[in-house]
């Protein structure tokens, strides 16, 4: 086991924030995790699991032992009457997996193309885009308990998926009776492999305005999965900054949900507000619109800024610190709250 000291984390977080790990160990296979846990020096120290670093804001050096997940592998592991079951190592790049599944004849992940990050991080925040969420294609995952070293498997229900949410984002709540929320796994588990159920009877998921526009422009009305993949890549490249060029962590806030009454009240004051009715009667508001309406698009605080083409994305203009990003985020939260009475909740994990 190679234990690296004082490691620069800038290349390992998509915001490109400068910070260091006091101790970093690379996990290329399950046995590496067991080795760290059995180590007399490292075993009992707090741990921090790092995937592709696409959903974190580093506000300083990381003192817990960084376990950098690099477990690889992509393969068909089984099938059911309805689905192909594909398994991928947690350290695989997410977009590479999407591309691989399409090139090997297993469509279903095309709407999730070009999302930065790794396979292991995808269930943590239940990544979603253009009408598909990870949970729609999820079969099960393997993980290792970071306290006991025991391997375990979770199905979708046990992952307690929600909008940009799962059991891996919640701390455990001792004393609570039972149920997924009581079993919070934040900082308690390292995901090693994820399995996806990709439908044999594939159907396109269209219906998003940006995709409809592509259909009209191209005059292709029955796109195949590869065509949708290409459109999604085009749409994302036009709207979202490439982390290789401008540091960012995708959408910085979740789209808030309000009751139908609250929404009706806001519409009276703000008739142009972008909103979507949800099946359960509540209404989702476009956080990007709220931030844009407060005049934030293109603005900066120090070296942290609001992306010119999508106000929901905060960017690192040049050497921003995590502190600058969070100061900007709080200023945005305050102005959205003052104007709309809505509290925006950050999506990335602040470290
Ligand atoms: N809008 C504005 N101004 C802006 C940004 C957006 O008016 O500066 C309006 C747009 O005109 C549009 C609406 O807000 O009517 C929604 O914008 P968009 O279609 O870009 O989607 P979003 O709600 O901002 C969500 C996800 C994205 C995902 C897209 C497409 C969240 C937090 N974000 O963004 O996910 O790619 O939908 O499905 O749910 C991510 O999580 O990192 C991410 C990029």
Can you give a write-up of this model?
- With 351 residues, the protein is α+β, with helices and mostly antiparallel strands.
- It folds into 3 domains: 2-69, Uridine Diphospho-n-acetylenolpyruvylglucosamine Reductase, domain 2 (2-Layer Sandwich), CATH 3.30.43; 74-199, Uridine Diphospho-n-acetylenolpyruvylglucosamine Reductase, domain 3, CATH 3.30.465.10; 247-350, UDP-N-acetylenolpyruvoylglucosamine reductase, C-terminal domain (Uridine Diphospho-n-acetylenolpyruvylglucosamine Reductase, domain 1), CATH 3.90.78.10.
- It contains 8 helices and 20 strands.
- The strands form 6 sheets. The chain has a 5-stranded antiparallel sheet with strand order 6-7-12-10-11.
- The protein is globular, with a radius of gyration of 21 Å.
- Bound molecules: uridine-diphosphate-2(N-acetylglucosaminyl) butyric acid.
- Uridine-diphosphate-2(N-acetylglucosaminyl) butyric acid (EPU) binds at residues 129-130, 239-240, 250-251, 254-255, 274, 286, 288-289, 292, 297, 310-312, 347.
């Amino acid at each position: 086991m190679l234990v690296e000291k004082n490691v620069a984390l800038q290349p390992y977080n998509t915001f490109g924030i400068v910070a260091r790990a006091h101790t970093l160990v690379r996990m290329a296979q399950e046995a590496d995790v067991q080795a760290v846990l059995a180590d007399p020096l490292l075993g009992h120290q707090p741990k921090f699991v790092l995937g592709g670093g696409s959903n974190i804001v580093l506000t300083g050096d990381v003192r817990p032992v960084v376990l950098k997940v690099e477990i690889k592998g992509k393969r068909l592991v089984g099938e059911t009457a309805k689905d192909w079951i594909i398994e991928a190592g947690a350290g695989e790049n997410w977009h590479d997996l999407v591309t691989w599944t399409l090139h090997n004849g297993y469509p279903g992940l095309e709407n999730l193309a070009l999302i930065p990050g790794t396979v292991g991080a995808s269930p943590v925040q239940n990544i979603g885009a253009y009408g598909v969420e990870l949970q729609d294609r999820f079969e099960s995952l393997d993980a290792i308990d970071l306290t006991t070293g025991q391997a375990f498997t979770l199905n979708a229900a046990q992952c307690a998926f929600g909008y940009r949410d799962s059991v891996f984002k919640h701390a455990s709540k001792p004393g609570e009776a039972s149920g997924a929320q009581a079993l919070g796994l934040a900082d308690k588990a390292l995901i090693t492999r994820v399995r996806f159920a990709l439908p044999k009877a594939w159907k396109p998921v269209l219906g998003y305005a940006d995709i409809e526009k592509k259909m009209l422009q191209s005059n292709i009305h029955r796109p195949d999965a590869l065509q949708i993949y290409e459109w999604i890549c085009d749409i994302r490249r036009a709207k979202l900054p490439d982390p290789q060029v401008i540091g960012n962590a995708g959408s910085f806030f979740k789209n808030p949900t309000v009751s139908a009454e609250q929404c009706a009240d806001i519409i009276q004051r703000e008739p142009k507000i972008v909103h979507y009715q949800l099946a359960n009667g509540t209404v989702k508001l476009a956080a990007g619109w709220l931030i844009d309406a407060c005049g934030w698009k293109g603005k900066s605080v120090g070296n942290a800024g609001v992306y010119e083409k999508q106000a929901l994305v905060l960017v690192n203009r040049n050497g921003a610190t995590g502190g600058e990003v969070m100061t900007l985020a709080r200023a945005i939260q305050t102005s959205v709250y003052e104007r709309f009475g809505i509290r925006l909740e950050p999506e990335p994990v602040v470290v």
